Amino acid sequence: MDVNAVAIAVLLGSFAVMIFLRFPIAYAVGLSSVFCLLTMGNSLNAVCRLMVKGISSFSLMAVPFFITMGVLMGKGGISDKLIALANACVGWMRGGLAMVNIVASYFFGGISGSASADTASIGSIMIPMMVDQGYDADFSTAVTITSSCEGLLVPPSHNMVIFATTAGGISVGSLFLAGYLPGAILAIALMVGSYIISVKRNYPKGDKFRFGTFIKQFSVSIWALLAIVVVVVGVVGGAFTATESAAIAVLYSLVVSVFVYKGVDWKGVWRALDECVNTLAIVMILIATSAVFGDCLTKLHVPDLAAKAIVGLTDNRIILILLLNVILLILGMIMDMAPIILIATPILLPVATQYCGLDPIQFGIMVVLNCGIGLLTPPVGAVLFIGSAVAKRPMEKVVKATLPFYLCMIIALLLISFIPDISLCIPKLIGNYEPTVPLLFLK
After folding, report:
1. C-alpha span between 154 and 179 (Å, rounded)
2. Do the domain assignments include residue 251?
3. Considering its fold, how many domains does the chain have in total?
């Protein structure tokens, strides 16, 4: 066995062992990289240089700003306002509160960009409200955690920034635009599932739709929704970069949270910033250590070997796309979202583009949604744990109630995987993006 083969075995084997032993993911990534470099006989001086290089990216500067924006808006008392707006839109339907939960997550996700924040914020309000109205507690929790994944697709999502940086050469603005329609497809799929269950269980309807009520709630919520406009329109219109837009959005969210909605005082702002620092520390150390891991993968030609191994199984494009989704779903069950994006993207992106004919942006949406589903699955489903804790329900019962919604999410995933238009039509129409694959409806 040559040195490269031994180094690959050390890199991936030690990483797998440490994941199994529940090492913190950043330590597992960093230590396996160090072991690999030692096996190859390389100097460890490169470790610090690669870690610094990994986080020395202008695009990555947007990540802390988006995280700060999400925390400030989440603490600023906007959840109840967005829930009221969602209720005015869809509360009249059978199972109205379930529909409100899903639509509110779509609105809130466009502000927080975090499934965990969505579950904690929306769930703490909606789950007790649904239970009081006669909904099953486990069903209410299942709706909350699955709909929270919409926020990963709807911009601004810092995970999309991480993917764009890792993939290299992808427009953050186009990736942002690409998330709107897939997020809506996911919301519709979940609403259909909720409606079927609500009819079967005879869950109640809400009040009839009133246009005046909708306008009133929209006028109250407009300040929160404008944060999305600041980011997306600014980036797509070329007024400023993703990093600049994120910085402006932080200032805007600070003003809205403190002076407009008055949901947080200055002490609360400092507490929110402390939470941001904790989250950011985790994300940045992951990015830094993943840069070393990625360098090892490149030097050992692991992406090429993985591509040949996957393509060696079959040359059928449909099966290859399904296989990519299965790989990402399995990774999502054992790893958190950011490390999957950082580690799997360099390996799987060449397979997706060269052998499956997927556009990089379409593949990015697939990766994000797969990782989102992983957040809901044991044993490492962070959002599943948070939802169970908020609802005070046993995790195994929540998982059982979530099974129909897993099916809804898989259907949405398959649509996104095989219909490029869902991800690419808006970037092409608005963002002047030129897809690398032919679209069905836009010629």
Report:
1. 5
2. yes
3. 1
